[in-house]
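RECORD TYPE: inverse folding
INPUT: structure tokens
STRUCTURE:
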């Protein structure tokens, strides 16, 4: 069980699963920059959050709902939580919005599951499913919040706390996904992956420029 002071951003789970170095740059070194992909995602979330709450028949829709879990040590905001009427009760159903299309990995599913687990702790109510809405395909994908996904979510949250507690940024490992990362020019994975630090690389660039004068 974590304390209020130990809570970490729920969104960091996705950063961690995408790249531990990116996660450390953002959440340890406080480095951030935006590219077209992150800007489009930010705008999508802003539009969803600004739409406000509403009721459609037997469904109540809450937007920008604040979340917290002392068990996972996470705090964040849910894009949308639908409350479906079932008799006298209302069953929460979280919906996370993404700008792109479904990914082959569990990155988005873990973020959604973490939101559901926060809601379960806050409301003391089981949430068996949620959904991911993708802006590119304009389709909603229902997600079963099963035991393996919950275990992976717990493991990811634990790993996130371990990484942040070390205060150390992992070494770079260059791969195809790096080209879409907004921190590419700050991370310098091709340089750092060869065992040369970003500081040494920048120093070499300065030296080369001075020699050319």
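DESIGNED SEQUENCE:
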């Amino acid at each position: 069980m974590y304390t209020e002071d130990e809570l970490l951003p729920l969104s960091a789970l996705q950063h961690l699963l995408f790249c531990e170095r990116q996660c450390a740059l953002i959440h340890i070194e406080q480095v951030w920059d935006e590219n077209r992909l992150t800007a489009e995602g930010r705008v999508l979330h802003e539009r969803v959050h600004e739409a406000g709450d509403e009721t459609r028949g037997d469904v109540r829709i809450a937007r920008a709902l604040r979340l917290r879990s002392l068990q996972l040590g996470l705090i964040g905001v849910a894009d949308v939580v639908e409350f479906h009427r079932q008799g006298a009760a209302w069953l929460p159903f979280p919906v996370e919005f993404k700008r792109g299309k479904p990914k082959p990995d569990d990155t988005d599913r873990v973020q959604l599951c973490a939101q559901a687990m926060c809601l379960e702790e806050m409301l003391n109510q089981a949430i068996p499913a949620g959904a991911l809405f993708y802006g590119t395909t304009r389709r909603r994908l229902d997600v079963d919040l099963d035991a393996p996904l919950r275990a992976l979510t717990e493991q990811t949250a634990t790993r996130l706390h371990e990484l942040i507690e070390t205060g150390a940024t992992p070494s770079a490992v260059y791969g195809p996904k790096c080209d879409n990362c907004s921190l590419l020019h700050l991370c310098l994975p091709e340089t750092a992956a060869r065992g040369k630090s970003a500081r040494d690389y920048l120093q070499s660039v300065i030296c080369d420029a001075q020699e050319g004068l």
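NOTES: Residues 194-198 have pLDDT under 50 and may be disordered.
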